[in-house]
Amino acid sequence: MTPLVAGHATGIGSWPGTDPREAAATVVGELPGLPHLVELPGRGLGADTIGRAAALLTDFPIDTSTTGYRTGARRSVIARRAAGLLSADLDALEEAWEIAGKGPGGAVKVQAPGPWTLAASLELAGGARLLLDRGAVRDLADSLGDGLASHAADVSRRCGGARVVVQLDEPLLTDVRAGRLTGRSRLESIPAVATPVAVETLDRVVAASAADVILHACSAEVPTDIAHESRVAALAFDLESVRTASLDGLGTLLDGGTELLVGAVPTTDPQRPLGVDDVLRDLGRLAHRLQFAPEVFAARVGLAPACGLAGASPQWARRALTTVRDAARAMADDPSLLTR
């Protein structure tokens, strides 16, 4: 089976600036194994993670409200803006792919908000969180999966038949499960979502998208149980967020064949110099804590920045990609470097 992220470096999603061609050229050039379709939230509404969903969902209109995004009755101005921005990003990726001389095959990653983060971020027409309407959550998951299937097919066509990997961003998943989200008013309470329900909804998106899916959760509580019980093929998390309680879950995932995408460098300019040796040392510590031999660990792990790079300087954004790329190559070529 072809590895999904193992042995590769990639980015999580967002990028500084507003120029899609410059961003695409940088990402395709720096990440030859698994480049990603960047998000440029600096362009405003419709370019951020939730706003981009307006261009991906099928038959599920989204509009803006005074507090964010909400469901709408028909295709809105913001949905047309989001679609236009996405089209520009796709044109830039296709151009960069061709200029780089990448032939048929290869792989590319796209990102979208996961169903639970999206449901927690959208409002219904009356102002309540969409999360409170479980029927609407199911409809949203189905729409997202269908939209991602079409999106992945378009990306593959533009990139010479490349394998498309889908990353679902779920920064709010742990809060949704724990019932920590507040309502839009003091009278509105949001109950916790049981694990089987969380898994079933996530799997609806995975099945409909017909793609290999990475679950990306950058919260302090890594949802290893969700990754284990669901149909996702890989789990992305921030190395700095790993607690001792997560170790057993991460080990179980690796044992079961789920790959890990480790966020190994910070998302903003570090206060001290950070290089490949530093990344390999941190990864070696993780492999030791998980009690995996270096060669086994290296064969099942990929690298990325800890999260999106929209808040980074352009210099650090490029350096972050270069660092994880070089560290991934070094780890794949010589796993014994993890023991130094």
From TrEMBL:
Gene3D superfamilies noted in UniProt: 3.20.20.210
Pfam short name (any one): Meth_synt_2
One function term, GO molecular function aspect: 5-methyltetrahydropteroyltriglutamate-homocysteine S-methyltransferase activity
GO biological process: methionine biosynthetic process
CDD domains reported in the protein's UniProt record: CIMS_like
Entry superkingdom: Bacteria
Domain Cobalamin-independent methionine synthase MetE C-terminal/archaeal: start-end pairs: 10-329
Annotated protein name in UniProt: Cobalamin-independent methionine synthase MetE C-terminal/archaeal domain-containing protein
Organism of this sequence: Rhodococcus rhodnii LMG 5362
